[in-house]
Design brief:
This protein is mainly α and about 325 residues long. The chain is built from eleven helices and five strands.
Length: about 325
């Protein structure tokens, strides 16, 4: 098999789901519905947090940015997946494939950092409640957010440059839903040890580092909760963390399975199912998790619904009065 340098590669062919053409339309409609729910749910969460004064707190500030990242994160991959399903495959230029990989890694990394920062926020709220206002100031929040963006950009840039200096040989077909690292590595040939080490090292600065920060934060949170004398007080305090824990378990669980394991013995079909889950399903579930399990969000949503109903009723009354005056 002749070796071919990456600079001579003009395009990659995404061929996911082409082996089951009869499932293409049902899957297209399903993923389109999930994508629309993702956009509406996360955009609704961002708007709700911005318009309701009771949600202008550090936790919801971070949650609004997490929802925005979920919109971006999902929009990088899902439209491409829909195009693959609709067209029975899709051709991506080298530049477009690299851009998609960079943006996916960038937004995904920021998601990881935001979940870690939210764990720190819960640690300060539970373990240092008297210092919460002085620690999680507006300046501190924006500083943590800026650090997350900077770290995400650095990781995505290095991983993209490293991944796309690999050499490819043989077919340029990717049996996957977008340009991701595991399927790209399966197309490489020659000595790629140095590049793979760099990719793994920078992956350690994202997934494992964020996991350690989250685990340490929740270790202190659990210790603080155990010192609360009443069972009701312990349950109430822990309930403020359940939404975040659920989101962390779903997101990091799939990332660990995908990226922090031995690739031998795993098929691309298996990877494809996992990728669909963390790129399509989890961004849709996050606003549901935080709204269904969070009393403050539910109260804010009810309030906004009542306001909109009241406004519409007032408009309707004015229209009726105008009609009576005209008659």
């Amino acid at each position: 098999m002749a070796e071919k340098n990456l600079t001579s590669t003009t395009q990659f062919l995404l061929t996911a789901f082409t082996d089951c053409p009869e499932q293409a339309l049902p899957l297209f409609l399903l993923f389109l519905l999930i994508y629309l729910i993702t956009l509406l749910g996360n955009a609704g969460m961002v708007i709700l947090i911005r318009v309701d004064g009771r949600l202008h707190t550090p936790m919801y500030f971070l949650l609004s940015h997490l929802s925005f990242m979920d919109i971006c994160y999902s929009s990088v991959t899902v439209p491409q997946m829909l195009a693959v399903l609709l067209e029975r495959g899709a051709a991506l230029s080298y530049t477009r494939c690299a851009a998609q990989f960079f943006l996916f890694t960038f937004f995904g990394s920021i998601d990881c950092y935001l979940l870690a920062i939210m764990a720190y926020d819960r640690y300060v709220a539970v373990c240092r409640p008297l210092l919460y206002v002085t620690v999680m100031t507006e300046k501190a929040r924006w500083g943590l957010l800026a650090a997350a963006y900077a770290a995400g950009f650095s990781s995505a840039f290095v991983r993209t440059v490293t991944a796309f200096t690999l050499s490819f040989c043989g077919t340029n077909e990717i049996d996957f839903i977008f340009c991701d690292l595991p399927p790209l590595l399966k197309l490489t040939c020659g000595d790629s040890y140095t590049q793979e080490v760099v990719i793994i090292v920078f992956a350690i600065f994202v997934i494992p580092a964020c996991m350690v920060a989250i685990l340490v934060s929740y270790l202190f949170i659990i210790m603080a909760i155990m010192r609360i004398p009443s069972a009701g007080g312990r349950a109430k305090t822990f309930s403020t963390c359940t939404s975040h824990l659920t989101a962390v378990s779903l997101f990091f669980g799939t990332l660990i399975f995908m990226y922090l394991r031995d690739n031998s013995g795993h098929s691309l079909q298996e990877d494809r199912v996992v990728a669909v889950f963390y790129t399509t399903v989890i961004p849709m579930l996050n606003p549901l998790i935080y709204s269904l399990r969070n009393q403050e969000v539910k109260e804010a949503l009810r309030k906004q619904v009542r306001i909109q109903v009241f406004r519409k009723s007032k408009v309707g009354q004015r229209e009726i009065l105008k009609g009576e005056e005209y008659q």
